[in-house]
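Q: My labmate handed me this sequence with no annotations at all. I'd like to see what the chain might look like in three dimensions before we decide whether it's worth expressing. Could you predict it?
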Amino acid sequence: MKFWIYLERDLNELQYHFEKIFKVDNLYRDYENVWEWIESSDRKSDFYLNISRPHDWEKGMYDKPIMITVESNTKVNLNEAEIAHKIKKELNCIVFAGEIFADENDNPIIKEKREY
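A: Here is what I predict for the chain of 116 residues:
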């Protein structure tokens, strides 16, 4: 299940909020030359999370979406609307759900979009 949001905040500021939203304590932040991300360190919790956005070595590229992938590690049914509303409430932002991916130049391509 994929979501995305636009925030002018760095990912390291958001880790706590995603831990609170998904009730997990296994997230870590990392980065490389183009992308930064917060990800589950293992699959022991109910959810596997990958939260990523391009960056410019100093800060996140705030005009690019923060892409949030949520997968169930158990038989927990994922409810798109429920997850979107939790993200929206915690981060006070518009949440999009649907199909998004990065092209070969790391630009977001949106194929399907629902707004919460």
